[in-house]
Design a protein that fits this description.
By secondary structure, this protein is an all-alpha fold. It is built from six helices and no strands. The protein is 86% helix and 0% strand.
Length: 166
Amino acid sequence: MSTVSDVIAFHFRPRQIVRRRLRETSGEGHALMYLVAACLLFYMAQLPEMVRQDLLSTSSAPLNAVAAARFLGGAILAPLFFYILAAFIGLICRLLGYSLPWFYTRIALFWPLLAIAPASLIVGILRGLTPSATILWSASVVVAMGFVFFWVVCLMEAVLLWREVS
């Protein structure tokens, strides 16, 4: 299946999809592609809020400067952060007795990021359209809880698959 089809199916069958992705993904290029695509979607989710802030404020920095700074943070520095986080989680797994390959811990983190990115686009649209803090907070919490749930499921599947393979 294509990546887009798998992202949609992941919301309904996360265990099967991540297990298949772990089996079929052969190299670091796929993991990096998942992460970069997720980071770019998270950056695009910030655009409506940036435009709204630019239209409503008179003393802020120009939109292109804010967009460039957020692009640097979101598309360049965020992947480094997520690689470090995946390595840290891999170390924690090893300390707990699960000797997962580093690649599995990266896929277990990067795939849920990509899968939850469409929901972050919806939150980004809400940030651009509504000033209501309650709606924004609620939507952000739902997306964050969804990511944590998917991340835990992916990590558990990675452990189970590695036990079967090794």
